Amino acid sequence: MSYWNTNVARHGDILRAVPAGCGDALDVGCGDGLLARKLTGRAKRVTGIDSSPEMIARARELAEGDLTFVEGDFLTADLAAGYDFICSVSAIHHMDFAAALARMRELLRPGGTLVVVGLAREASVGDWIARIAAAPAVRVVKVLRRASEPENMPVATPRMTYREVREAAQRLLPGVRYRWHVLRRYSLTWRKP
Questions:
Q1: CA dihedral sign, ordered 97, 44, 174, 131
Q2: What are the residues facing 108 on neighbouring strands?
Q3: Which of 16, 19, 99, 121 has the smallest set of CB atoms within 10 Å of its CB?
Q4: How far apart are the first and last CA of the chain?
Q5: Distance of alpha carbon 5 from alpha carbon 21, whole angstroms
Q6: How buried is 190 (Cβ within 10 angstroms: 0-12 exposed, 13-18 middle, 19+ buried)?
Q7: Are strands 177-181 and 22-28 parallel, antiparallel or unpaired?
Q8: Is the dihedral of CA 191, 35, 163, 97 positive or negative?
Q9: Residue 158 φ then ψ, to 5°
Q10: 5 contacts 149 by C-beta, under 8 angstroms
Q11: Per residue in 46-104, pLDDT tens?
């Protein structure tokens, strides 16, 4: 099953960030497992975790290859430390941001890479100008790409602003690279020392 939306738009960047020779990868908030399935081409073993029973059931149904799916709360689930790559797409705003980043940092091996793609809320004049300016392009891209969501995908409204996300990430992940993306997403990329 394949589809496109503003989350899937970031998959290419995420896949390019997977380190060469990646042994273990973790997809936090994996949903129906689309990105986890793509990660199997870049990592020897892939684990996806999601708190939605419906999403995990769908992910397991569609799974091929060396994929493991865990149903549970990422902040408390029993996961082994030592991932070479951890990613999360539009899921961190469903959790306590600082606790989630700290847990990802803890589970990552030294030298491992973390990529988080998230949503934040507009708060500053600059945020709103950027959103309004990008709106026509976002609408056109969504129509042309026939954007769709998997059925029963959980949604949540982001509580943190873009500035709060950037500042918290810089505190928790020294040296993190923060980027704002036109399709109403930001990304954090960090390599663990």
A1: negative
A2: 83
A3: 16
A4: 37
A5: 29
A6: buried
A7: unpaired
A8: negative
A9: -65, 140
A10: yes
A11: 999 999 999 999 999 999 877 999 999 999 999 988 999 999 999 999 999 999 999 99
